[in-house]
Sequence to fold (203 residues):
Amino acid sequence: MRLEDLTPMQQDTLRELGSIGAGHAATALSQLVDTQVLLSTPRLEIIPFAEVPRVFGGPEQLVGAVYSRLLGDIDGGILFLAPRDSSLALVDLMHSHPPGTTKSFGREEEALFTHIGSIMTAAYVAAIARMADLNVLPAPPAFVLDMAGAILQVATVEVGMKATAALLVRTSFQDEQTSIDVGVFFLPDPDSLEVILGRLGMA
Fold:
């Protein structure tokens, strides 16, 4: 079963599941910051895997990403991704620094961004697991700063070339000084997608 072959009702079910996951992820992130942060309404869409890079400006766009393989009842991966400028702005937000303070990624910045991505993806996966009654956890995360197309290739290899589409949750975090675009890509393999929908009574 492939994401792009789902019926409209099955797609709506997955979007609802993704929306719940996004809400949990946003709540987890808001608890990390010491300032008032507004969250835009999450936008959810199912897109072909090859189109993932265009979401943030195309395959040559430099992005920060945190990737985790899924372990347990389902296989696949989950990718937290933000354009480079948004990635650095997110680090500034976490440090309560003015936007533009952080100019590049060093070890501390990579660790902080990875921590943010890990918390976001863990909350998202936990929500899906709870709703679908699954035993699933994200593996230890890996950080990468690279072109979106190159990151997609790595993620494709990680999920064994099986994922053909992604469930995208895209939102932005806003405070008085900046707006930060981020995305969470849920990449289930076809067999796992069937398991999820079966648990939800939609197979």
User: Anything to note?
Assistant: Helices lie at 8-30, 84-95, 107-132, 148-158, 190-199. The beta strands are 38-39, 43-48, 62-72, 76-83, 136-138, 142-147, 165-174, 179-188. The radius of gyration is 16 Å.
